[in-house]
Write a structure and sequence with these properties.
Blueprint: H1 2-16, H2 20-25, H3 41-51, H4 55-63, H5 67-76, H6 84-93, H7 97-106, H8 114-121, H9 127-143, H10 149-162, H11 168-182, H12 186-200, H13 205-218, H14 221-230
């Protein structure tokens, strides 16, 4: 009963912090507002900090179907308690890049199943499931400090295979993952540049876009200077 009361309280808090401008602005970022209240991400994060990790509460928040309540699960669910089946279930519910990226960056990439899901989701057909694979890979470049370079080099094959997907939300995530790998260290930068160059020279339009988009950042003076300092 307590978690149900907490869900009611959380929804009430979110409604109090919703604004018409935020709700109307969601359309500009290709985020459906049918099941949304209009609460900023910064406010959602604030509520998440106040609530702390509470996995049972996260499950009930997700079941409300409310966009902001589902976003809140990123900061409330316990990564250690996320099962592969639950990750698959939530991932299938993704209908926009905002919920996809937020869960991948703040929850999924901290679970023990993250690397497996990158591989599995990278070959799925659903647009936001496939995007999740590469948003998750991007998150791992930042948060998995113990991962060896070999794990990311192996993931470059997944990137190259998915680069021909012309859907906007997929190809952008593929490019982001490629750039993120290439910014982790100098060795990975070299490996990522090789893949990006090959893609940039492809006869496939989507792959060419991914390659050129990635090269602009991977070979930029700011990235080169940063990697030199890391050495």
């Amino acid at each position: 009963m307590k978690n149900r009361d907490d869900v009611t309280s959380a929804l009430a808090w979110l409604k109090c912090h919703a604004t018409k401008d935020t709700l109307e602005g969601m359309a500009r970022y290709a985020i459906p507002s049918d099941h949304a209240l209009g609460v900023s991400v910064s406010d959602i994060r604030l509520l998440g900090k106040r609530l702390g990790r509470n996995h049972a509460l996260a499950l009930e928040l997700w079941d409300t179907g409310v966009y902001e309540a589902r976003m809140l699960t990123s900061f409330v669910a316990d990564p250690a308690l996320m099962t592969p089946a639950l990750m698959d279930s939530w991932c299938r519910d993704f209908d926009n890049w905002g919920i996809c990226d937020t869960l991948c960056f703040h929850l999924f990439d901290r679970t023990p199943h993250a690397w497996i899901k990158v591989r599995q989701w990278s070959v799925r057909r659903g647009e936001f499931v496939k995007r999740a694979a590469f948003a998750l890979l991007w998150g791992l470049t930042v948060h998995d400090k113990r991962a060896a370079d070999e794990a990311f080099i192996g993931s470059l094959r997944l990137i190259e295979r998915a680069a021909t997907d012309e859907r906007n939300f997929v190809k952008k995530a593929v490019s982001m993952a490629l750039r993120a790998i290439g910014k982790r260290n100098a060795a990975l930068n070299s490996a990522a540049v090789i893949v990006a160059t090959r893609l940039a020279e492809s006869t496939d339009a989507a792959a060419r876009w991914v390659g050129k988009d990635a090269l602009r950042e991977l070979e930029s003076p700011s990235v080169i200077r940063r990697l030199a300092r890391l050495r």
